[in-house]
Amino acid sequence: MRKIAIYGKGGIGKSTTTSNLSEALAEKGYKVMQVGCDPKADSTKTVMGGQRIPTVLEQLREKGEELKLSDIVFEGYNGVLCVESGGPTPGIGCAGRGIISAFEKLEELKAFEIYKPDIVIYDVLGDVVCGGFAMPIREGYAREVFIVSSGEMMSLYAANNIAQAIKNFGKRGYAKLSGLILNAKNIENEQEIVNKAVDEIGTKVIQYVPRSPEIQAAEAKGGTVFEKLETSSMKDIYRSLADQVLKLSENIEI
Question: CA quadruple 244, 225, 194, 177: dihedral positive or negative?
Fold first, then answer.
């Protein structure tokens, strides 16, 4: 089983990138599970045809020990399995703790043994890399980490913080940083800015994702470009990203 985490600053297009990557991998015949690790619980929305799924924390609060895997794992387009960790009631509790609780419940219910995914992708908010948000890399859930960033200063600042956290955990034999996905915002000299930044961070750009109205067109219809657009140049971009991720991922136990 390949275990991958995708980090990035909130609003950078991380969930869009992750969802289309999941679809590209599923198209290649892999069984993919996408786990949203953000209190907003919107990572898998486009994979699920625009529908929000119940989160692990919501179902835990409602069903307690009677909770079943079918209550928290849902099948989306192309067979992608979708899970959302969710978060606490606003103003009460810790969002990071919610991720920890969700991971523990997935383990307790033996989700990976039962569904047997080839690839698990954790979509993780990267504004902070502490507590539960560090869970995928700190506890060995993910072995390969990719960062989504644009050339904007705050996005690259977050990318650098994420990279430093990964390096710290990497010293203990956990995850390693495999590359940066440039999700373009069309700012001036963006690729040059990002190439300089990744040199300083100590990684490389593995895929350039151009800004495209096709993404918004697909999302307006409630899905990914793979499901909602008959033809789209972006499909080949995400297929190329999938190829790069497969090539760089070393934790292969399929």
Answer: negative
